[in-house]
Specification:
The protein has 401 residues and is mostly helical. Helices cover 75% and strands 6% of the residues. The protein has helices spanning 25-34, 59-74, 79-89, 93-107, 112-116, 125-137, 140-195, 203-217, 219-239, 241-253, 257-278, 283-293, 297-311, 316-323, 328-340, 343-399; strands at residues 2-9, 15-22, 38-44.
Length: 401
């Protein structure tokens, strides 16, 4: 779909200007005619397929969008009027712009899900498919309620991931800054005096001198290497699927952090699968959506393998087991769900269990990071004090002072 700016004339001869999405000029003319307008001229507003608000409509804005529409539809307010109210009350100008374009498309004859297809940077494919399922089943308000709850849950997961990564990273940065300060500025001044004593220095003092000299000589390398390495890793992950696969597998195998990341990903996949399956979407489509939203290439390829196996006629439990990546809990719950006909409920339980487990693991990790980092800093400072003042003390003792 392409976004067009148009000029039209209504039945009263007044000029109307606006913006809407259409497949081509003929489709635009047909849409405007449905709105009671005759097309005068038009031009492309944005490149084909580019969303109105790429990366600008945040998850919390979508939560507001779902909640507002769900409440309005539950009260019997039509979609068009609901979008008009949301456009008038939304704080985010990009969200208001999206709502306006959705209104134009719906007034031109599109359904809500069809109108959302013009904004892939705002509404994901899973989001659109669920809205389409709600329109077909007449349960759009129920689907919007589930989408809002899922978006809140994703927001909570994102917060947990940030805590998992940022707390150790911040503590490590503080330790690194202290090390640089000690080795580059403080230790050389102290060791300059110790070296003039002419006494034989102990091994730990000679090691401190070597480390401090290395820091001073290669300070720019030490400061530039970490961001350069991170940049190269990110670039490699974006340009090379093979490198990204190795990197994603490494993430899952990291001690302490890897199992927590795996649980968060599996919780997201289980919750998404359960929500889509309960909405009437086919198993194959649920698996495909999970593959696209995994966020980890190793798990995405495992989901792809599951999808091919199910398409070949194997049952879901055996297909997940054959991939060799999913833990026994998921396999057991999928088999129970298939047997009892309550697959969605079983996967919801898996999502709840893994989310709770990951939250508790992150809490334990946070409680350990501070004392561990304090201990490391204390050891470094103790090493510096012992290496600097030990020889001074030995010298004073030898002089009989």
């Amino acid at each position: 779909m392409t976004i067009y700016r148009y000029k039209g004339v209504d039945a009263g001869g007044r000029i109307r200007k606006g913006k809407t999405s259409a497949a081509n000029g003929a489709d635009l003319e047909l849409r405007l005619r449905r709105m009671g307008l005759e097309l005068v001229s038009y031009r492309t507003a944005r490149p084909d397929g580019m969303p109105i608000a790429p990366r600008r409509v945040k998850r919390r804005d979508l939560i507001v969008f779902c909640f507002h529409l769900e409440q309005a539809l539950r009260a019997g307010v039509p979609v068009v009027e609901s979008l008009q109210d949301l456009r008038a009350s939304a704080d985010n100008p990009r969200l208001r712009e999206v709502c306006g374009s959705l209104l134009e498309a719906i007034e031109g004859g599109s359904t809500l899900s069809e109108a959302m297809c013009g904004f892939p940077g705002v509404f994901s494919e899973v989001f659109i498919n669920l809205v389409r399922a709600g329109e077909q089943t007449g349960n759009l308000n129920g689907i919007l309620e589930k989408l809002g709850a899922d978006l809140k849950w994703q927001d909570e997961q994102a917060s947990m991931v940030r805590k998992l990564v940022m707390v150790p990273a911040f503590s490590g940065a503080v330790i690194s800054a202290v090390m640089v300060f000690l080795m580059v500025y403080l230790v050389p001044e102290l060791l300059a005096f110790v070296s003039t004593t002419g006494s034989n220095l102990p091994a730990h003092t000679r090691l401190l001198i070597a480390v401090s000299t290395g820091f001073a000589d290669y300070l720019y390398v030490i400061l530039c290497a970490p961001p350069l390495m991170v940049t190269l890793i990110i670039a490699g992950g974006r340009t090379s699927p093979g490198f990204r696969l190795v990197l994603d597998r490494l993430k899952l195998s990291l001690p302490v952090v890897g199992p927590v990341l795996e649980k968060l990903i599996l919780a997201r996949l289980s919750g998404l699968f359960a929500m889509m399956y309960a909405s009437g979407i086919t198993v194959i489509d649920c698996i495909s959506a999970g593959e696209r939203s995994a966020g980890n290439l190793a798990i995405a390829r495992a989901m792809n393998s599951v999808g091919r196996s199910v398409a070949d006629g194997r049952n879901l439990g055996d297909s997940f087991a054959a991939s060799g990546l999913f833990p026994p809990l998921i396999l057991r719950m999928i088999r129970v769900g298939e047997t009892t006909g309550a697959l969605a409920l079983s996967l919801e339980n898996v999502a709840w269990f893994y989310t709770r487990d990951a939250r508790e693991a992150i809490g334990r990790l946070q409680s350990l990071v501070e004392p561990v980092m304090t201990l490391l800093l204390g050891l470094v400072i103790g090493w510096v004090v012992l290496s600097v003042f030990g020889p001074i003390y030995d010298l004073i003792t030898g002089l009989g002072i």
